[in-house]
Amino acid sequence: MLPHGWWRLRLRVSEELREYSKLLERVLAKFPELSKEELEAMVEAKLRSSKLLNRVGALLLVAEELGAFKEAEEKAEQSEIQAYTKLGNLVPGLRDVSVRGTVYALSGPIEVKDHRIMRLKIGDDTGSVDVIIWDEKADEAASMKLKLGDQIAVLHGYTRERVETGRPELHVGRGGLIARLEAEGPDPRSFYLDLGEALEAGDGVYDVKAVVLDPGEERRISTRYGEADVREIRLIGEAGGVRLTVWRERVEDFKDLKPGERIYLTDVRIEGVRASLTSRSILAIREKPSEESLRMIEGRKARNLIVRVLDVVEVAAGAILIATDGEQILRVQLPFKEVKPGDHLLVKEAIRESRRGKIRLLCGEEDVEEVEPEEEIKPPSRLVKLAEISSGRKTELVDVIVEGVLYTKTRLMRVRTRFGEVEKVGFWIRDGEAAVQGSAWRAKAEEIARIREGARVRLKWVSVRMNVFGEPEIQLDNESIIEVLDGSGQEASSGSGK
Fold it and tell me: What is the CATH code of the structural domain delimited by 386-495?
């Protein structure tokens, strides 16, 4: 009696032989000075050097060493042997594409409806991509026992647009093939953004690395879909922090987390100071607490601090309070919005961070309570004259207030950054004889674009830095506040976001 699954094994071997023969002919056409016997002898030598390689993988390595896969200037289909496409050049809608990269996350196979699916994430020096492997190809990939850091080639895949992000994802179906390559690749950890960098980039879906500040407690709550397990985990990066909410069956993956662990998570959705897993999220790597990470945790805690609220900036996940303890300007991030300027709050516990000179306190719903202080906190003076900035006496400032007439501005334009395209406006404000240039990005760029030239404005909680031309520049971020004033200096309308 034939063993169970023998026909799948036979089909896989047959497909690999067909791919091997086809690729062999292409390599020979590329290098006519080689005989078939010489090329196959080189493949056999590769196979003997590593037990992890199959014949296709060995041939790919030989072809690469010969120079067959150097980037061609012409399109891949015009070259004699198809070149690897760089991951950063992938777009949705490709029907036959081959890539190579380093595996930095993997999951499955799992049953999804009538299919078996295995997911990988691979990266190269230009970007990364989700690889979705289907049915018998998922079983083949699982039998390869791939691990993080492996270099692989994906041949004859096709790309689709990922609904959540709009980015391409690579699918491997019946006509595709995966081969392990022997070459060393970069550390798989290098493909993860520090949580602070992801927060700086704004809301979106990211592959992040972070340190566990507080693993939280598992709770069982009632929802409209029935009872569900939930855990809220506090994570911090080199700068910034979030509360990661984990639901239902995913709670088990995070059951024994410890403070100080460094974790590497793919496809995390970040919205303000909140984070959540998506259906694609993989807990790829866990590292035990280190002395460095434990010191990092201890240095980031703040307790029993009374502050006065100066301004409130509403965000999707709650509010960011511009506050003061009487000496410093602090940003207090809360998951709720029922706070107003003038309120005094006791911050019982928070994560403290400093990013680009700005101090931020990350709080949970139970970490803050309203209080009546014995003595009202007096806000520090943060108003800076434009003459002091233009003279060069004050050129590196954070969380200051400036006033002047918006006398000229550029059109709203889209600028490419490492985090994608964003809106930007350049402008100049004048006060008497002093004039200083400024820049606004994203939502604040749109706000400046709506203000008429000649209006007097007050720009609150801005930075002043030297730009690339060695000149002082006022810089607005999403937590800056723009107020339009009338001729007497009284507020006529506000763009504060309150």
Answer: 2.40.50.140
